[in-house]
Structure formats: C-alpha cells, structure tokens
Specification:
The structure holds three protein chains of three kinds. Chain A is α+β, with helices and mostly antiparallel strands. Chain A is built from 16 helices and eight strands. In chain A, α5 runs antiparallel to α6, α5 runs antiparallel to α15 and α6 packs antiparallel against α7. Chain C folds into two domains: about 35 residues; about 110 residues, Alpha-Beta Plaits (2-Layer Sandwich), CATH 3.30.70. The chains are: A alpha+beta, B mainly alpha, C alpha+beta. At the A-B interface, α1, α5, α6, α8 and α15 of A face α7, α11 and α15 of B.
C-alpha cells in the first residue's frame, strides 16, 4: 500500500497521467503526458509518432501520380484538398494550363470536403463535451456528402480523385443535382446544430474563455486555419493566394479576435455557411470541356524547387517538392497544419482544468495521421 | 377470497394471518422477510434490465438510430444477452489494488440502492416498509452509494479512477443539500415525512399542482439535483467518458462492473419513483377537480400502473436530459449548486412555508 | 436590485437555451421515419452500390472467356504498392509468329489502396472495379487473386 501511494505522487507533487495513445478524446493515437495539480493542468507534453508511416520518405521512391494516394492518408478528413495541393504543385512545375472545368470541379469538391470535415468536427466536439447526440447528427449529415463522393470518385473518404493535370474521372451525371439537394438539406439542418449545441448554456460556459490564444502567439507559432482565424490571424490561403477557382467566387474570411475555444468552434460553424455559398456560386457554372489535360505518360519535373500551399479544413498545407529531373521527387516535405497547431496545446491549456484540456484539444481539431505523416 | 387489485392491504393481511395460523410468529416474520426480499430482488432485476433496454432505445431514437434490434423481437433480449456476457467475462485482477475494498465497493453501491427501493410505496398497501421518516430514510440511504464510488476509485490503483471518485464525492456532498431541501418543501406542504401519508394527502390533487409555483420549482430542482446525485446525464463527471475513460469503474470487469451499471440505472429509477411519489401523487390516479366522469375513468387504471407511468415519465425526462446536454465541468457543477440551486431552494422553502401558513394552497 | 433582475434573467435565458436543445432531440424522438440506420446483412439483396464504387480490381471476361489484357505490364509499373504482378508466357500463334501473352495476372487485394491508377492507365481497358465489398476471409492467402480466368484468351482485335 505504501508503495502504491509513493507511485501515485512523484517528487514534484505533480499527478502525472497519460492521456492516450488509447484515449477517447485524443481522436487517434496521440499521447499527452499531463501533469496535474488536483484537477488543474500544469504541463502538457504531447508525444507523437505512433502512426508514423514515413510518407515523405516513401514519396522519394514513387512517381508523382503515385504520391497522390499517399497524401489522402495524411489528413484523411481533407483528403481531396491534400490531393489538390500535390497536383497544383506538379502542374505549377510543369506550367500546365488547367481548364476552367477542372478548376471549378476541384473547388466544389474541396468545399464539400471542408464541410464534411467541419461536420465531423462538430460531431466529435459535441462528444468530447459529453453531448453524445451531436455525434450522430453530425455523422448523419456527413453521410450525404460521402455519398456524393462515392458516386463521383468511387470512394467515400480516401477519394484519390485528383491526378496531375486534372481529375481521375469526369463528374457523375447526378453530381450537380445531388450537391444542390444536399445544400438545400443542409441549410435546413445546420440551424439545428446551433440550436442543439452553440446556444446551449452549458456548452457556452464550457468553451468561452477557455484556452485563449492571442494573435501574437498564433502568428509566432504559425497556427493557421480556423484555429488561427479565431485569434484574428487572417491566414486564409483561399483569400490571400487564390488557387483553383477561388479567385472568381465571393466569400468572407471568418475571423474573430477572442481566440478561445468557443470562437474556434464558431469559425468552423460559419465556414460551413461560406462553403455552401461558394458551392452555390459554382455548381451551375461548370463549363463543358475535358476533365483532364493530356499529360506525358511519365511525368518528370524540371530540376528545381516547387512550393504550393492550400487551405485544408485545418489550416495551411504546404507541399514542398525538390526535383532533380527524375520521375521521382528528390525530396518532398509537407507542412502539415495539425503538427503546427498541436504545438500551442501546452501554451493554451496551462492552468485550466483537465476537462478543459479535452475542450481545447477538441477545438484545435487535430487529425493525428497528419501530425505523424 | 376476493382480492382488490386496487388495494393490496387485504391481500397482505390475508398472507400474514394464514402464515401466523400455521407457524410460530417468529417463523411467520422470517417467511415474510423472505417473500419480501425475493419479490424486491425480482422487481429490481426486471426493472434494471428493462431500464437498460429502454435507455438504449430512447437514446437511439433521439439520435436517428434503431438501437438494439438483433436479439429477439425489437432487440428485447439484448440486455439479457449482455447480462449473460457480463457473467461470463473474466474478472481481471488488478495489481497493487486494495483487494478487499476493491471487491467491497460494488456491493456497497448496489446495497444502497437496494435499501432505498424498499421504502417506496408502489401501490396502496404494496409497501415493503412504511417508515414514519420515509423521506429522510430515502435521502440518507441513497447517499450511501457514494461511499462505494469513493472506495472503487481509491482501491483501483488507477489515476483516472481516483479523479473520478473525488469528483463524485464533491458532487454528492453538495447536491445532497438540494435534494433534501426540495423534498422538505413538500414535507412542509404535506405535514408528514411518511411516504404513505404524503401519497394519501395527494388524493385531492398532486402536490405539484397543489403547491402553486414553489412546488413546481421544487420539482425542477429535485430533478436537476437528483440527476446529479445519480451521476447521470449532464452531471456524469465521475465517469466522464471523454475525460477519464470510465472514471471510477475503469478497472472493473464482468459482474462487478455490472453491479455498478445496474446500480446506476436503479438509482435513476429510485429518484424517479421518489419524484413521482412526492410530487406527482405516487400511485394516485390523475383527477381533475369536479369532473366526476373523467375521474371515474381514471380510477379504472390500477394504482401500480399509475405509479409506473409516472415513474417512467420522470425516467424519460432524465434520459432526455442526458442525451441532449453536454457535460458540465466540476467547478460549474459546484457553481450551479451553491450559487443557483441552493439560494433558490432556500427562498422556495420560505415561500412554501408562508403559503402553508396562510393556507393559500388548494 | 438590478443584480437580482440580471440573476433571474440569466437563469431564464439559460433554461430557455436548454429547452431549445431538448426540442431538437424531442423532434427526432417522435419521428421514427427519420431513422437512418440500415439493417445491413438483411438488406444485402436490395443493397445497390454506386456504379463507380472501388470494391476490388477485376478483369472483365466476355461470354467466350476472353479478356483484353495484353500483358504489357503498365498497371504493374503504375501500382504504388506492388499489388499487381504479371507473369507472362510466350506462345506460338496459328500463323507461326511468337507472341507474348499473359499467363497470370496476380492481384494482391490485401496490399491494394484503391488508388485506381491501374484501371486508369491500362491502355486496353482490361481492368475494372467491381462493386464487391465483402472482402473478409479467414486465410490471408485467399486475398491473393489471379484475375484472368483459367483457359481464358486475349480478345480478338485487342493489341
């Protein structure tokens, strides 16, 4: 018994618990070593690498079209946007002109991906906070987007729909109708999300003023995406460096100045409305044309370094390719948003309660395979 | 001998006299104890199994799911299958656990709920023990369960369990006050602590209607604080799945886990029965003033059914809370109690006392 | 006095927000038609998969047991994981020419990531995706499949 007591309390009188790698609220195999004093979090030390697959190294031994299917498996919730990033980088290097049709379809698919990712965020965030019903409503609506993906891309989550020079297949004839149907449906159900969770007094109390990230910290740590924009960091790549068809649509970049968990959540809720607006502007204006540009059978990038950044559902994804002129890249580096966003966890969750650590971790919306790659 | 299904007094008396005529008084009492014990045990098991099934169906329907639908028609025997599975599951020994307390904890939890159920009047005359301080007894006994929770958390040698147990301790200590005060509001109105008296006093109208707004506020507060006391719904901090994996029963497996699980559901049933008994008229049928025809129709339903209907109505409310709201944080939980429920409750007791004093209630 | 009014207002707005949340769950509770659960093994007969669904790679054969695979090996080169292996053999055709044809087109389902590069790059459209999705087997060896049927031949007119 004496030994058991000694084991529980370490020298610094801190109560160290391991959250993860198997823990319901770390959303994957993230391990957080949390030092507690009572219920108060004193230090959080993330341990990563439990799902490291060496994607960057694997990229060096395969060709450019083959890289696409690996990027799906980084941030599996923004699979299509990751694909697009690599394709755009390759197309930039080859100076390929991409027809409007491809650009617009890519944009629509990206925004659908963003909506489904935010839906899953809403679902799991509700579950993290103990409202299990949110989980099922979120997944119920996400299923409708996944069905659209399945019909056009053949897969539900890991779509692999892009290839350098365009798309793998043309859109399905039902695509436009289905998307319109979904937008109509989701405009009706999204207010329910607010009714169930956003307005709820318990939810607001749990998230407001919890895990405040200042603008300075957001910029110096490089926190991007909804988490960065909640702190007032205007970092939307879609707005500042438009790619695909983002230069021809009107949408607002949602920013707040509070930077707490509640506003990180709110940015995502509002972004779903913006994404629906973007899709509505484009869905009726898909021009006729080929769905892919004819590329050489073996794609070789000219010698040099290429960088392309895109806005995934979680922040800025950068693809950095060094080519030595071969069919395989010399080096590929992904600047993954989740790895950067994770780095602020210790900063913003200090001196909050252990329940708040779950809230803050959930509000950063981490996808672990993207951290470990 | 004709038995009135609306009044069990004659039936129980007949059993008593026939037993006493055939054996010594001590033997008769022993046999009666046995009968009552077995009856309550059966009732406990059946209700527990049914509640688990009902919870799963209710939450499934709220979440656009079907819920259990494989074992038996509409998945009715799902919980029985679960029980069989739990009985067969290996009891995992925990290293460095305090073996005695570890094994004792589930029994304390389940005994506490078992004791509380004996004081509840199910129908006229169907009452295991009619204590003259019934309300006090129920509050006291139902609070005993937390000792089991604390012991479980302490003896498991698991850090998550310990945090969960400590949370549970803080929670019960504070919410016990609200439960007590909201029941006292009605005790003032009824003028008695005996549960059968309280039910009888509601023959002319349920206390929730009789006692104007204070009774309604007391009912709402009782619902909130009793949900907290049973570690359920938005107040399930002691087991907070997304924070503490499973809280105080993380290390339990098999039948010991089943005890905690069953006790949680039975506690919910017990507080629902108390709410039904004290606020909603217990087994009294629903009557409206002088609508004699309507009242006569209502009288046709047996009291036991009325009791079950009301209890399950309250149980449904508690399930509805659980499957809608996110969980509170520990400091918010205590804020809710000490800054909101307790002051409101005290004001409420005063107002109720004043109303009773002036004779303003119906 | 103002603080008391604020206190009461706070309580009322809080309770109102909770009731609004309960309205949503209550709405779905009384509408069993909104249930989205599919009873999977029972509806297996009526289950229709999307036509483009990537179940597994197959090689379509026509009624004369002919396929289109020339054994060129482009799918093998394009596969990122080494899922496909082609074993070819040399046969003598009727007019005496020697020709390389496919002996075995080996497809390892357990390694496949369904990137669809093999199907897309095949010059003679010999490969396709089937809608079969129940892949579970008890033996790992069963996941290695030979796509060309025994005794099958190259379709006439396909080079």
């Amino acid at each position: 018994m004496e030994e058991a007591v000694k084991e529980l309390i370490d020298e610094n009188q801190e109560y160290v618990i391991n959250m993860g790698p198997q823990h319901p609220s770390t959303h994957g195999v993230l391990r957080l070593v949390v030092s507690l004093k009572g219920e108060i979090v004193k230090n959080v030390e993330p341990h990563i690498g439990y799902i490291h697959r060496g994607i960057e190294k694997m990229c060096e031994s395969i060709t450019y079209p083959q890289i696409i299917h690996l990027t799906d498996r980084m941030d599996y919730l923004s699979a299509h946007i990751n694909n697009e990033a690599v394709c755009l980088a390759v197309e930039k290097a080859l100076e390929t002109d991409i027809p409007d049709r491809i650009k617009i379809i890519r944009t629509i698919m990206s925004e659908l991906t963003r909506i489904q990712s935010h839906q899953l965020f809403w679902a799991t965030y509700g579950m993290d906070l103990g409202g299990l019903t949110c989980f099922f409503y979120g997944l119920r609506d996400r299923e409708k987007i996944l069905d659209i993906f399945e019909e056009t891309c053949g897969s539900r989550m890991i779509v692999s729909y892009n290839c350098p020079g365009g798309l793998m297949y043309d859109i399905h004839p039902n695509f436009q109708n289905r998307v319109k149907e979904f937008i109509k449906y989701f405009r009706r159900t999204l207010p329910e999300y607010d009714q169930l969770l956003t307005g709820n007094v318990i939810f607001r109390e749990r998230t407001m003023n919890v895990g405040r990230l200042s603008l300075e910290d957001a910029i110096s740590y490089g926190v991007t995406g909804p988490s960065g924009r909640a702190s007032g960091f205007s970092c939307d790549v879609r707005k500042h460096e438009p790619y695909s068809a983002y230069d021809r649509v009107k949408f607002n970049e949602i920013t707040f100045n509070d930077g707490d968990s509640y506003h990180r959540y709110l940015v995502r809720m509002k972004e779903m409305w913006e994404s629906m607006d973007i899709i509505e502007q484009l869905i009726d204006n898909i021009p006729e044309g080929p769905y892919a540009v004819k590329m050489k059978p073996v794609i070789k990038l000219p010698e040099g370094e290429y960088y392309q950044r895109v806005e995934t559902a979680r922040g800025e994804l950068g693809v950095y390719i060094i080519s030595d002129g071969n069919k395989n890249p010399y080096r590929v580096k992904f600047r993954s948003p989740n790895f950067v966003n994770l780095s602020v966890l210790n900063l913003i969750s200090k001196d909050f309660k252990i329940a708040d650590l779950v809230t803050i971790g959930g509000s950063l919306d981490l996808v672990i395979p993207d951290i470990d790659r | 001998m004709p038995f009135d299904i609306y009044d069990f007094t004659s039936f129980t008396q007949w059993i008593d006299t026939s037993l006493r005529s055939s054996m010594s008084p001590a033997g008769a009492v022993a046999v009666e104890f046995l009968i009552v014990g077995v009856m309550i045990l059966l009732f406990y098991a059946v209700i527990g199994l049914f509640l688990v099934y009902a919870e799963r169906k209710v939450c499934a329907f709220m979440q656009n799911r079907l819920g259990p639908n494989r074992v038996g028609p509409f998945g009715m025997f799902q919980t029985i299958a679960d029980l069989v599975k739990l009985l067969l599951v290996e009891l995992v020994p925990i290293r460095n656990a305090d073996k005695f307390l570890f094994n004792l904890a589930p029994f304390i939890v389940i005994t506490a709920s078992f004791m509380a159920i004996s004081a509840i009047p199910f129908a006229k005359g169907l009452h295991a023990i009619d204590l003259n301080i019934g309300v006090l007894y129920v509050i006291a006994v139902s609070a005993m369960g937390v000792i089991g929770v604390l012991l479980a958390g302490w003896s498991s040698n698991n850090k998550y369990s310990l945090i969960g147990a400590m949370r549970s301790g803080a929670q019960i200590v504070s919410y016990e006050l609200s439960v007590g005060l909201s029941l006292i509001t009605i005790v003032i109105l009824a003028g008695s602590m005996q549960l059968s008296e309280i039910v009888n006093a509601q023959s002319t109208g349920w206390f929730i209607f009789k006692g104007h707004i204070p009774a309604f506020i007391a009912f709402v507060i009782f619902l909130i604080s009793s949900t907290a006391e049973t570690n359920r719904g938005p107040f399930d901090l002691a087991e907070a799945e997304s924070e503490l994996t499973a809280g105080y029963h993380t290390e339990y497996s098999g039948i010991k886990f089943a005890f905690f699980f069953l006790a949680e559901y039975m506690n919910m049933f017990i507080v629902a029965s108390i709410a039904a008994t004290v606020f909603l008229g217990g087994w009294m049928p629903f009557h409206i003033g002088s609508w004699n025809g309507f009242n006569a129709i209502m009288d046709y339903l047996p009291p036991f059914i009325w009791y079950l209907l009301k209890t399950f109505f309250v149980v449904f409310l508690m399930m509805w809370f659980k499957w809608t709201f996110p969980r509170l944080r520990i400091d918010q939980l205590l804020t809710l109690e000490w800054k909101y429920l307790l002051p409101i409750n005290m004001m409420n007791v005063l107002i109720m006392a004043f109303i009773v004093l002036m004779g303003w209630h119906f | 006095m103002k603080s008391i009014i604020d206190y009461i207002k706070e309580i009322i707005s809080a309770v109102w927000s909770l009731l609004k949340g309960m309205q949503v769950t209550g709405y779905y509770f009384i509408r069993p038609k909104t249930i989205v659960t599919q009873k999977y093994p029972e509806n297996r007969k009526t289950l229709v998969m999307m036509e483009r669904f990537k179940g597994e790679v197959v090689m379509p054969h026509n009624e004369k047991n002919e396929h289109k695979c020339t054994g060129c090996g482009i799918c093998e080169i394009n596969c990122p994981n080494g899922t496909i292996e082609i074993i070819s053999k040399t046969i003598t055709t009727e007019d005496g020419k020697k020709k390389r044809v496919i002996d075995k087109h080996i497809y390892r389902l357990g390694m496949c990531t369904f990137c669809a590069l093999c199907v897309k790059t095949c010059p003679s459209n010999a490969l396709a995706f089937s809608q079969e999705f129940e892949h579970a087997v008890f033996n790992k060896a069963l996941l290695t499949k030979v796509l060309n049927k025994p005794g099958s031949q190259l379709m006439k007119g396909v080079e």
